[in-house]
Amino acid sequence: EERLESLICRVGEKSNSSLESNLEGLAGVLEADLPNYKSKILRILCTVYFYHIIWQTLQNA
């Protein structure tokens, strides 16, 4: 479970890989882990989305 959180959190980090490549890799991992960790994956994604909306709102204020 910690591996999933770490992967999701690292998607936006600066690296040699493009964001698109990082997202594609993450999608593959999440798809493979979905049967075993569905509720955890959904909870993490909802949290990320929530903070993204807050960040966008603050940027536009």
What would you note in describing this structure?
By secondary structure, this protein is mostly helical. 84% of the residues lie in helices and 0% in strands. The chain has one domain (2-60). The protein has helices at 2-10, 19-60. Helix 1 crosses helix 2 (19-60). The protein is flat, with a radius of gyration of 13 Å. One of its GO terms (molecular function) is RNA cap binding. One of its GO terms (biological process) is nuclear-transcribed mRNA catabolic process, nonsense-mediated decay.
Instruction: Please mark out the parts with pLDDT under 50 across 5 or more consecutive residues, or reply none.
Output: none
What does the oligomeric state look like here? single chain
The proportion of residues forming helix, as a percent range, comes to over 70%
In DSSP terms (H or I, runs of 4 or more residues), the helix count works out at: 2
- Which of globular, elongated, flat, extended, rod-shaped describes the shape? flat
- Count the domains: 1
> What structural class should be given to the helix and strand makeup?
mainly alpha
> How many distinct beta strands?
0
Average pLDDT number: 84
The H/E string reads HH
